[in-house]
Amino acid sequence: MTKADVDCVTADGLSWRCKPCQNTRRKSMQFESGVEEGKITLADIMKKITEMSEAQKVQDASFNKSYESLSEKLDENTKAVTDQNSSIERCLKIIDDLTQKNIQLQKKVDELEKRVDDMEQYSRLNAVEIHGIPEEKNEDVISIVKEVGKALDMTISDTMIDACHRLGRRTDPNRPPPGIIVKFVRRLDKEELLKKRRVKNNLSTRHMNMGTDQPVYINEALSPAKRRLFAEARQLKKEKMYKFLWVRGGKIFMRKDEESTSIQVTCKADFASL
Hints:
By secondary structure, the protein is α+β, with helices and mostly antiparallel strands. Strand 6 (251-255) and strand 7 (263-265) form a beta hairpin. The strands form two sheets. A four-stranded antiparallel β-sheet has the order 2-3-1-4, covered by helices on one side. A three-stranded antiparallel β-sheet has the order 5-6-7, with helices on one face. It has six helices and seven strands, in the order H-H-H-E-H-E-E-H-E-H-E-E-E. The chain has helices at residues 3-12, 19-37, 42-123, 141-151, 187-199, 224-239; strands at residues 127-131, 161-166, 180-184, 217-220, 244-248, 251-255, 263-265.
């Protein structure tokens, strides 16, 4: 088309069709005019049916192609889901195996920790801790221990002591002074000191001529784990209103009252039965 042809069509608002479309349009107009005039022939009907059949075939072919494509994608998705399920099952099995191994390892760790704690506690069987004695600069700790023994009517010599020192340095002046740990050569001497302390339950610094009147406590030396367990037992004793809590031979015992049976506390799990 020339520019003049385009301008003419545009100016008159006409419709332009290519030759194939013009032929189709003419056939459609002939069919429609034939319907209006009542002059439809069998050939026209068969032609129209053929056109509809061909169009249906094209639609069927397109539908089948789309269906096959969707079916392929569905198979791919099904395979992917199956593979993922298999992968998840393998991961779950690995998790179960790791969980079981972790439980076994945790049991071994608990057993090893208990064994180490028992060994540490065994190394303290000959030792006691003395609390309540004020700390002085350049003090002679062994002389203090001897004074404690004298206050309890027990003579403590240098040959009876294997080791003796303060448990730590005091950083907060408002806190009680650190205790003194004494390790005896013989366990009998340690037991004798504890026995005399139980007899004289009002032991104080005034019995040692220190110019003060502060209670002095002598307890069996405990391992770090046993010391933490004893602290929790002491707190629970207040909450559960237990009357007795003591340590004997490195073992912790609790009793509700005079009529109750004693309970040995070996771990935190034992608190559940209180």
